Description:
The protein is mainly alpha-helical. Helix content is about 60%, strand content about 5%. The chain has helices at about 1-15, 20-30, 45-60, 65-80, 95-105, 125-130, 155-160, 185-190, 195-285, and strands at about 110, 120, 135-140, 145-150. Residues about 1-20 and about 30-45 have low confidence and may be disordered.
Amino acid sequence: AEVRGLLSEKLSSAKKGPRGLAVLHARLEKLEARRSFGGRFVSNAADKVAGKARELEVRGEYRHGGRQRLALELVQRYDTTREWHCGCDMEQLGSTERERHLTSCVFRPVGCSHAGCTALFSARYEAAHDGSCEFKVVRCALGCKESLPRRDMEAHVAGPCAMRPAECPFRALGCLAPGLVQGEVASHLEEARDAHLQLAMARLLQQDQELSELRQAMTEMRAAAETTAATSASAAASTIAGLQKKIAALEAGQAAAQAAAKKSAAQAKDTTAALATRLAKLERERG
């Protein structure tokens, strides 16, 4: 509601010049409780005022010069901590003092002095920018003799930096070399040549011993397999012989049974013939 009233008053009084600005100032003072650090409002009131100001400027009712005067006055009024302006009244200064102030004011615009950086900021923040500028040439973070742009530091310390922590190439053989850095690897290999040869020989002897033990284990396993195979073959042969005996006995019994059956059949045939003869004889006698 305050902002709507402010803008309505501005629209109705824009053509009256200074009085319209005075009314705008008075209304803005009532919104002071809504501002945050640096004179910016917590709500979107400032955005609404800026939008309406652009509209008035397009319509020719809000001149650029008037808007700049209003902005300057608002900053001076609300920036009580001098975060965004120095508070100096340039209109009260003589030409010499004004020139001196323009070259010494902490809010004068300055550019970064580091090659490649195009940042522009107030002189007040020059030191802060210098402390984080990605283009500033700084000494290596690990302490080597190299100097390079801050933005290249991460790749440097992870790659070619001579002070990057390193491991001895013979670490797998047991060389720990505490505190070794990349720039000292070559000299370490030269100084510890004999120790590295001893470690290599010790590892070769260990491997020979392990190979010998493996060969012995393989020989024992082969012998055990051959013994097992021979025992298995003997047991199989014995089993087969027993089965053959059983088969032979079964075949012999079968032959005897067949012979007995033939004999019984012959006997039965003779008996039948004899009975037939006797029966014929009896029938003749009765007749």
